[in-house]
Specification:
single chain; alpha/beta; Ubiquitin-like (UB roll); Dimethylsulfoxide Reductase, domain 2; six-stranded mixed β-barrel; 37 strands; 31% helix
Length: 886
């Protein structure tokens, strides 16, 4: 700590604190315009100047760190006169009408406080742009503080804004295009947040928020904290909050794509399909109908004739209740969630090898890492806030290896980009391991203390030396060796992986091979390291962890280990028979064994692989209960009953993000019409089926308290603590600070972990004469998953549809041109897509996102599944592409 004197009063602050922050903390805040705590100081506006003893002239407090014994004076005639003069210079060309129209902007308040009138002199040659759907431009208000330039560079890393000219001729505009979008803007809104004058602003309908409510983002698994602005019963604005996860930053989806909440096609009344048509009914009628159907099916075919699916968009509390409903009310372990089709392989691999099926480290550790290994993930599009943090770390000098068939944005920045052939992750990861051993890049101390099975593993991977597998993997042997050296030499090195690793025949085994690399190099149990899955949806980690999994209970506890405890608390016996996961439910439905399916916030038909086969299975069901905001594709084609539910803006609860952080959501406005929270629907249906006991909760907090009583690692995560603390489990009691880094001294249940010997098993999806190309599917920045939310927002103006991304060589080979619609088919189905010729693609490989229901990309994907947990292989399917009409 450092002691200093501010305006005659002694204060103590942390060493390294900026003086401007120390002044604010001491209640002696000074005016400023160019300062933003998220970026490096510039000292340009000279409004925050103070007198410091020993300094010949006033100094900008934003650019000076405190020092022991510093004596500071913040007020005085000379200082006030200097600030006023500087304000007058800044305001010389400023429009007076702007101050009158919007007096609450920081710059406008400063002018009023110092009695400075705007000069109102018109400027020529200012940048104009009306094309962005979310960000407005009024550069006549620009005061040249350059905060937009610095925050775009230093937080988002897009380098959109530049200052052109000098002196009075200075102008700020995009450096790489005539519009924001042409200049590389990704719509994060950071420049809008930072702008103190309104030169950059959010385009809104003119309604100012009346109330702000803190919540957690509803999109990806990063878990950004946001403030929801509401007025007149509607969400009208979102702004990023300062939290350890997002540090006052957001992406285009989290900040702007909220209009879906009030979309005109939102379902607000329960419905039953009769004679092929949906009819609005009362809640009593819908619940009675669903209960009677479920009761009849269970009585006739047994409880295992029903399947229940939790939701990554529902809260932890609601997912806990729905799996409890399946096991207690229906009497079946047939419960799953969408983790099955994305990161169940991660959970399986991490739990098998390390004892905990979750990320080992925090996002905060990005700042601690000296190198990154990004595998099968595109964070700047799929997880943009984390992607921006990784990008900033790399721009500051951290090493980067990217393993991805496409040349993504991070691959462009990488020291080594391994453009692996789709389906060849395992031999590539084994080759990296073989290099680490052959070149003695392993951590011998860590191996001796914490790792078993080294000799057998080394003998196995000796057959995977880079020179042996480079051709099959499609990457040069020396590049593989360079990647291994960088990962080992950069310690601590942090690994992030995504669905490009997990959604394969060997998805689980691919993650195991990544864990091997961390074990060999000692990149576990310390800050800046670890193996970290980037979860795709806001609560996919929580949904599975709450027990929406046929083989485990809440807290990922094995049924045979924790079952007795659950039976005691629930006052009911658990089912004896083994449950079905989602792929097995689809198989059972096709075979006529599964008769009913309850899908909560999950569009199974649109999102499950091999859609034509999925449709044949769903068509055989007698009862399909859909619980959602909108008439999704499952409901439209196969639904029997529709339960309309509240959005995350309209209820309380918690989500669990990718780095094991449990975070609150809070009611910002009431649900519309007859929509009810998911937890209310579950409780009501349990009562209709004659088993209300154990479901009579007063609200989400009461549900969460039961969760904590059954989940030892979450016992300390009370609502009272979550109100003010960002906590990560394990957190076993209310005095525990949470656990940012797992496996510090030992792995779960053991001092050591064993290296996994992973054989390579090729997928059956191989190109041939009939299907000569390989298609990979994935996410893009502006749309999300099945498009249920983003397709009902202005994000459609940023990306209206999906494209078939193709290498220039393939486009020339087949005679395709940019924008041409072509017919693509696999052995399982077909679709028509628009060609986008992209240098990010390699010849022989194609890419398309899966967000558009009308294109239905999953008609193309195959029935191949992960060998251990049956996750579909979305990442590799052999296809052919033809001109329409051929």
């Amino acid at each position: 700590m450092v002691q200093l004197t501010i305006d005659g009063i002694s204060h103590e602050v942390a060493d390294g604190t900026l003086l401007i922050d120390a002044l604010t903390a001491a209640g002696a805040a000074v005016p400023h315009l160019c300062h933003d705590s998220r970026v490096k100081p510039s000292g340009a506006c000279r409004l925050c100047v103070v007198d410091v003893s020993g300094q010949a002239r006033p100094v900008p407090s934003c650019a000076l760190e405190v020092s022991a014994g510093m004596v500071v004076r913040t007020r005085g005639e000379a200082l006030d006169a200097l600030r006023r003069t500087n304000l007058e210079l800044i305001a010389a060309h400023y429009p007076a009408a702007a101050c009158a129209a919007e007096p609450d902007h920081p710059f406008h308040r400063l002018l009023a406080a110092h009695g400075v009138e705007p000069g109102d002199v018109r400027q020529e040659g200012l940048f104009q742009d009306e094309t962005h759907p979310y960000i407005g431009v009024a550069m006549e208000r620009c005061i040249y503080c350059e905060r937009c330039i610095r925050i775009c560079e230093q937080v988002q890393g897009q380098f959109v804004w530049e200052a052109w000219g000098r002196g009075d001729g200075t102008r700020i505009s995009p450096g790489k295009g005539s519009t924001l979008l042409a200049g590389g803007c990704v719509g994060c809104g950071a420049c809008v947040d930072s702008c103190p004058s309104g030169a950059l602003f959010d385009k809104r309908v003119g309604v100012e928020p009346a109330v702000w409510t803190r919540t957690t983002c509803v999109y990806c698994g990063v878990g950004c904290q946001l403030d929801v602005g509401t007025a007149h019963g509607r969400v009208v604005a979102m702004r990023p909050a300062d939290s350890p996860v997002n540090r006052g930053h957001a992406c285009v989806k989290g900040r702007y794509a909220f209009e879906y909440n009030h979309a005109p096609d939102r379902i607000m009344q329960p419905m039953i399909r009769r004679d092929g048509n949906w009819q609005a009914v009362s809640w009593d009628a819908a619940l009675d109908f669903a209960a009677s159907k479920l009761e009849a099916i269970v009585a006739r075919d047994g409880p295992d004739a029903v399947g229940v699916l939790g939701s990554a968009r529902a809260t932890n509390e609601e997912n806990y209740l729905v799996q409890k409903f399946a096991r207690v009310v229906l009497g079946t372990h047939n419960v799953d969630c969408c983790a099955r089709v994305c990161h169940t392989p991660s959970a399986k691999a991490l739990k098998t090898m390390l004892g905990v099926g979750a990320a080992t480290n925090s996002f905060d550790d990005i700042d601690e890492a000296n190198a990154f290994l990004i595998c099968g993930a595109n964070p700047t599009e799929g997880h943009p806030v984390v992607g921006a943090r990784i990008k900033q770390a790399v721009l500051k000098g951290a090493g980067l290896v990217v393993i991805d068939p496409r040349r993504t944005e991070l691959a462009e920045l990488a020291d080594v980009h391994l453009a692996v052939q789709p389906g060849r992750n395992v031999p590539l990861f084994n080759a990296l391991a073989a290099t680490l051993i052959e070149e003695d890049l392993v951590d011998r101390h860590f191996l001796a203390e914490r790792v078993e099975g080294f000799d057998a593993f080394a003998a196995h991977v000796a057959d995977f030396l880079p020179e042996s597998v480079a051709g099959a993997c499609g990457v040069p042997a020396e590049a593989i060796r360079a990647a291994a050296r960088l990962y080992a030499g950069g310690r601590p090195s942090m690994c992030f992986h995504g669905l490009g690793v997990t959604e394969h025949l060997q998805g689980s085994e691919g993650v195991m091979a990544l864990v091997n690399l961390a074990l060999l190099t000692g990149n576990l149990g310390k800050h800046g390291s670890g193996v970290n899955p980037l979860r795709g949806q806001n609560n996919v980690q929580g949904a599975a962890h709450m027990g929406c999994d046929p083989a485990s209970l809440t807290g990922a506890q094995a049924i045979d280990v924790a079952g007795a405890c659950f039976e005691q608390v629930w006052g009911a016996r658990l089912p004896v028979s083994r449950g079905l996961d989602l792929p097995k439910m689809i198989d059972a439905a096709r075979a006529g064994r599964l008769k009913a399916l309850w899908a909560m916030g999950y569009d199974v038909y649109l999102s499950f692989a091999n859609a034509n086969d999925t449709a044949a299975a769903l068509a055989r069901l007698e009862l399909v209960i859909v619980q959602d905001l909108f008439m999704n594709e499952t409901a439209r084609s196969f639904g029997t009953v529709f339960f309309p539910v509240a959005s995350s803006f309209e209820k309380d609860g918690t989500f669990m993000n990718s780095d094991r952080r449990v975070q609150r959501i809070r009611t910002a406005l009431p649900a519309p019409g007859e929509a009810r929270p998911d937890w209310w629907v579950i409780q009501a249906l349990a009562a209709r089926l004659g088993k209300p006991r154990g479901f009579e909760f007063t609200g989400p907090e009461a549900v969460w308290d039961e969760v904590r009583s059954l989940w030892p690692d979450g016992a300390g995560l009370t609502y009272a603590r979550l109100e003010h603390e960002d906590l990560q489990w394990p957190c076993p009691d209310e005095s525990h600070p949470g656990t940012p880094v797992l496996h510090r001294e030992r792995f779960a249940g053991a001092k050591t972990a064993k290296l996994a010997v992973v054989e390579y098993v090729p997928t059956v999806e191989q190109p041939d004469e009939s299907y000569p190309l390989l298609l990979t599917t994935g996410r893009t920045l502006y749309q999300f998953n099945a498009g249920t939310m983003t397709q009902r927002t202005a994000n459609l103006l940023l990306r209206a549809s999906e494209t078939l991304d193709m290498a220039p060589d393939d486009a020339a080979r087949y005679g395709f041109v940019e924008g041409e619609t072509v017919h693509i088919s696999s052995r399982y189905g077909a679709a028509d897509l628009t060609v986008h010729i992209s240098g990010a693609m390699r010849a022989g490989q194609l890419f398309s996102a899966f967000h558009c229901p009308d294109l239905f990309i999953n008609r193309l994907t195959s029935p191949v599944r992960d060998r251990l947990v049956r996750t579909p292989e979305y990442k590799v399917v052999a296809v052919r592409v033809e001109k329409l009409g051929d």
